[in-house]
Amino acid sequence: MLGSLRWQVEAKGWADERLKVMVLQALALHMNGEKDKGVQLLCEALAIAAPGGFIRLFVDEDPPMAHLLSAAEARGMLLDYTRKLLAEVDVPKREDTSSLFPPAQRMFEPLSRRELEVLHLLAQGLSNQEMCERLFLALDTVKGHNRKIFDKLQVQRRTEAVARARELGLL
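^ thats the sequence. predicted structure below, dont judge the formating
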C-alpha cells in the first residue's frame, strides 16, 4: 500500500510527502522482518532529508526509528546527521512517557499527548520559544497548545495552569 502511495506522491512531485512515505515504508519493512530493505530505504530517506535538516519526521516515529537509525549509523550513513537524530530519539523523556499519563484525568476533555508534553515544559518554566526549540515546533503551534491547555484546564495564566494540573495529578 505504501509503495502505491509513494508512486502517487512522486508522480505529483510532492517531495515532502514522498519523504514521509519513505520513512513509513522503511519502518514497515524493518518491522516485518525485511530489515536490510528497511535500512536501505531509510538511508535513501536520510540522504534526501539531510540537506533540509528534517528532524521531527524521524523522531516522531520513536522507538522503532531508534533501531533503524542505529542500523544506518552502523553502515556509516551520513554519520553526523544520523547521530543528531539518534540523540533526539534517545532522550529519556521520549523513552519513559508513563509519567505523562496519570491514572485518571478528572477533566471534561483530557489533554492530548502533545499538550501534556507542553504542560510539563510549561511547569519547568520554559518560555514559548524554548518549548519550540525543545519540541521542534513553530511558535504559533506552541501558543496554540497553550491556549488549548488553558481552555481545558479552565485557567487564564501559566501559573494557574500548573497549579490546576497539579491538583488534577497531571504533574
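Residues 91-107 have pLDDT under 50 and may be disordered.
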